[in-house]
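Subject: sequence -> structure tokens, single chain

Hey, anyone have a minute? Need the predicted structure for the following. Not urgent.
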Amino acid sequence: MADLLKTMASAARRARRRPLSTVLALPRLLVPSTPKPKRKRVASASPTARRKQSTVPPRPTPGSFLADTFTCPQGTLDYRFYTPKGSARRRMPLVVMLHGCSQSAPDFAAGTDMNRLADELGLLVLYPQQSPKANVGRCWNWHDPKNQARGRGEPAVIAALTRHAMSFGRANPARIYIAGISAGGTAAAIIGAAYPDLFAAVGVHSGLPPGNIRSLRSAMSVMPLGVV
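Reply:
Had a minute. Here:
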């Protein structure tokens, strides 16, 4: 009680010397102040943690032969992807290899010895693999009109898969190539012509140049001649 009287007397003396606003503040002086609640500090992620959250997955280990499946709106393909031995920091060329009929991606890699060449020259190699559901002989269906133009069918799937491989493989976008043998060679010629902005060059072995084939029957008739 004595403390309260002292506070009131002190406020009265100040009121005689100060404006009315000080007197009006007297009731607030008599009310015990309530401490403000402390704000909880939210720990922010460290710069290192933020970098980890924003980075894309690392390039596959040098010397690895990755097996995976890719899906886009135009379809799905299994594939193999080879990362050459050596530095993982280089921006390397990417070669897309299309196998022939009755082959698989591992068959084609072994038969061409392309992975060894990739180690020697510093190349990323992508091997798309045709599904037996799409073609019982694992041939690329280049003779079908829906697989002969940009933005649809097998060309669209392989182009999208190539961009996917470019991304996670950190490929040099100015040095993307496509090559193939037999049905894969013809498919490579068609895809290279449909996507000149993506592929810098095309390699064709035992295949046909793009032409006017619109059916399997007509394809069978021209293949022995080597012309379209």
